[in-house]
Amino acid sequence: MKVTVVGAGAVGASCAEYIAIKNFASEVVLLDIKEGFAEGKAMDLMQTASLNGFDTKITGVTDDYSKTANSDVCVITSGIPRKPGMTREELIGINAGIVKTVSSNLIENSPNTIIIVVSNPMDTMTYLVHKTTGLPKNRIIGMGGALDSARFKYRLAEALEAPISDVDGMVIGGHSDTGMVPLINKATRNSVNVSEFLSEERMQQVVEDTKVGGATLTKLLGTSAWYAPGAAVSGMVQAIACDTKKIFPCSALLEGEYGLNDLAIGVPCVLGANGIEKIVNISLNDAEKAKLSESAEGVKKTNGLLEL
Length: 308
Ligand SMILES: NC(=O)c1ccc[n+]([C@@H]2O[C@H](COP(=O)([O-])OP(=O)(O)OC[C@H]3O[C@@H](n4cnc5c(N)ncnc54)[C@H](O)[C@@H]3O)[C@@H](O)[C@H]2O)c1
Ligand SMILES: O=C(O)C[C@H](O)C(=O)O
Description:
Blueprint: E1 2-6, H1 10-22, E2 27-32, H2 37-46, H3 49-52, E3 57-62, E4 73-76, H4 92-109, E5 114-117, H5 122-133, E6 140-142, H6 145-160, E7 167-168, E8 171-173, E9 180-182, E10 188-189, E11 192-193, H7 200-211, H8 213-221, H9 227-241, E12 246-255, E13 261-272, E14 275-279, H10 286-303
Parallel strand pairs: 1-2, 1-4, 2-3, 4-5, 5-6
Antiparallel strand pairs: 7-10, 8-9, 10-11, 12-13, 13-14
Helix pairs in contact: 1-9, 4-5, 5-10, 6-7, 6-9
This protein binds nicotinamide-adenine-dinucleotide and (2S)-2-hydroxybutanedioic acid (LMR).
């Protein structure tokens, strides 16, 4: 399994590190436009191999796509991150051009690859890759829900004063401060609905803290987060590499699923060797349906800013 990660910045390097530590890929190629940067990150990471016990070979290249040839999975993290006070949507002007060029270069060298889009605004960047590359819809996957669900579980565990391993929950919808839909009514502690343990007010607090998870970290760090994003991507790459058929909420192109069309937005997906093997249609209550369709309107508004 060969994986290319474009963008050797905070998220790209973290993603490469987690993929290597999990030891399921033979090769990770890190590519960046900044001269020598990916080479340096790759060398530093390779010097952790004997310490962390992995055999994955990590190489770094400066803008040389020939080295990415025949990658099974390509991850796009190239682009600018937001600063405190900004929304993800404000990044569209710079990141759309980067994502369009990068995805075209990747496919030219790896025509059978599966692409995971991370750059923000992620749902719109995923839609852009669908619109400009024409790859089958199962082979373009946006990463947002895996991260948002991890943050949801963190907040649930905090509220429940429970170990995270006891908690389950999922976030669907757009990967934005207002568009996320944490499915609080379906969240459980060891199979018991969390409403048995938490007041309505506390559950709403968990929902609101989850939705602004990225903004909260951006304010603390001065730039956006990377450890949990990198871990979330590595989990998705592993599901594809090892054909696990695990369910992750992913930004997928919808053609009627959930009553939505012509956008990419977070919905539960089975991930396996073929990328998105199935979009899982779970039943939503009326409030959840309304929130998902409101979120879809927000994503479509941002998509409307693309020059297609
Ligand atoms: N979807 C998510 O859940 C999620 C999570 C975290 C970050 N992000 C997004 O991921 C992106 C990267 O974040 P980061 O913190 O790693 O930023 P960063 O600035 O640390 O790294 C970005 C890297 O991209 C490189 N780059 C820019 N243009 C390029 C090009 N044309 N080709 C190759 N490389 C190029 C830069 O040189 C830089 O090293 C941002 O858009 C951020 O908003 C998304
Ligand atoms: O918050 C951001 O801008 C980065 C990313 O989308 C995140 O959720 O961490």
